[in-house]
Specification:
Blueprint: H1 3-11, E1 16-19, E2 22-27, E3 31-36, H2 47-53, E4 57-62, H3 76-89, E5 95-100, H4 102-112, E6 118-124, H5 144-152, H6 163-173, H7 176-191, E7 205-210, H8 218-227, E8 231-236, H9 243-246, H10 248-261
Helix pairs in contact: 2-10, 3-4, 5-6
């Protein structure tokens, strides 16, 4: 596990557990809420969500092994299997799932074969239908300004891309082992289109989308909503690809209203 992520978990007062191949946050009590981060995601993306919901839910935040699995397993399916194995180990039979970007796609791939285990599903900026993938090989990855602009592109307000976040992305894409896995994972996501399978997701579902998302534009949220039988869609204005990070208060209110309505 990255040292920076470990420090963030400890500084945030989160209950961090490391058991064998699994590293995860297990916080709070109640119905289980699984949080799944994206390709460049981290604990910081869900910091506000965890703090808001830990009073009413048992939060499970797996640190997905994006850079430690073999290339063969660096796929959406590989990540879904990892999540499933963790839930089995924790004896979690049913849970609410929330996934951002690749994390939403992972929830969909896991859920396709475990529909009865999804109490509800929330997608925000999810891949699985269409995305302007960042896994393009990074031809200019040695340029800090290039990586900075790519990171800022994720958000409506470029200031959300702090220097710390840009530094982290820059380090990641300039590590050969990591960038190869990122590209492999991104290509796997593009190949694994879920359009024909979404009709089976009959559990309550919520789409929370940034109205200014340029990675998975608003029509993607609308398409998910149209294809899932029991879903609803909410947009957050002046917000990009990571609403829970860029507009946490609005995001948390929409999610809480949805979950409590169940």
């Amino acid at each position: 596990m990255e040292k920076k992520a470990l420090e963030m978990a400890q500084n945030g007062g989160f209950n961090l557990i490391q058991e064998g191949e699994f590293t995860y946050i297990d916080q709070g009590e109640g119905d289980v809420l699984i949080l799944l981060h994206g390709l460049f995601g981290a604990l910081s993306n869900f910091h506000e969500v965890i703090n808001h919901f830990k009073k009413d839910f048992r939060i499970i935040f797996p640190f997905l092994p994006l850079y430690s699995l073999s290339l063969k397993k660096s796929t959406v399916r590989g990540m879904a299997d990892h999540v499933g194995q963790l839930l089995d180990q924790l004896s979690i039979e049913r849970a609410h799932f929330l996934g951002n970007s690749l994390g939403g796609h992972i929830a969909l791939v896991y859920g396709k074969e475990n529909l009865n285990r999804l109490q509800s599903l929330t997608l925000t900026g999810s891949s699985g239908l269409f995305e302007n993938a960042m896994g393009d090989g990074y031809p200019n990855r040695e340029s800090y300004e290039y990586i900075k602009s790519k990171t800022e592109y994720t958000f409506y307000d470029p200031k959300t891309a702090t220097k710390e976040l840009v530094d982290e992305v820059y380090e990641t894409v300039n590590n050969r082992g990591k960038v190869i896995r990122i590209i492999t994972m991104a290509k796997s996501a593009i190949r694994h289109n879920m359009r024909d399978e979404l009709g089976a997701f009959t559990m309550p579902a919520k789409m929370i989308w940034g109205s200014d998302d340029r990675i998975t534009p608003p029509f993607v949220g609308e398409e998910f909503n149209n294809l899932m039988p029991n879903s609803s869609l909410s947009f957050i204005d002046e917000c990009g690809h990571a609403p829970m990070m860029e507009k946490p208060q609005e995001f948390n209110k929409i999610l809480m209203d949805f979950l409590t309505s169940l």
